[in-house]
Write a structure and sequence with these properties.
Length: 161
């Protein structure tokens, strides 16, 4: 499995847009073109925001996006990991964990901490296993959980002469 910035795999943009639309936007009446436009804005952002993709050879297996804000009810929290998707036949293989960890590491590497995400209640155990802290429950019309993760500061050893 490889994890790439979506800008480095432009041939995967249509499938990423489709999966995000199907899973997260279509149920609310949005058009695929709305997702394509939003994804183009993410990809034009330079180092942030960004989208990552997981591949197995040339096969798309999953995606995640890091954005400024993902929950209208909490506009002051930032940045967010959003739109985590793994192909159904590839779930349970560590791809989601790898994508979340890669996105988080990339954000932490840019000095962005804490990081937030929101998810439906049935995903609570998954994120808690990855050490995300649950900070709120039942937020907004979808009754989402809100999680946070802080960068762990590097400790430098001091050698006394």
């Amino acid at each position: 499995m490889r994890i790439l910035d979506l800008n480095d795999a432009p041939e995967l943009k249509p499938i990423v847009a489709d999966r995000i639309w199907q899973a997260f936007w279509r149920p609310y009446g949005a058009a695929l073109t709305d997702v394509e436009t939003a994804l183009a804005e993410v990809l034009a952002g330079g180092s942030f925001p960004f989208s990552l993709v997981a591949t197995d050879g040339d096969q798309f297996t999953g995606t995640v996006t890091a954005i400024e804000s993902d929950l209208a009810a909490r506009p002051l929290l930032s940045p967010w990991i959003a739109a985590l998707w793994v192909e159904p036949d590839r779930r349970g293989q560590g791809i989601a964990e790898a994508l979340v960890n890669a996105a988080t590491a990339k954000l932490f590497g840019r000095g962005m901490s804490p990081v937030y995400l929101c998810a439906k209640r049935h995903m609570r155990g998954f994120y808690q296993r990855l050490n995300w802290g649950l900070i709120e429950q039942d937020v907004g019309p979808d009754a989402l959980d809100v999680f946070t993760l802080y960068a762990v500061p590097r400790l430098h050893s001091v050698i006394n002469p």
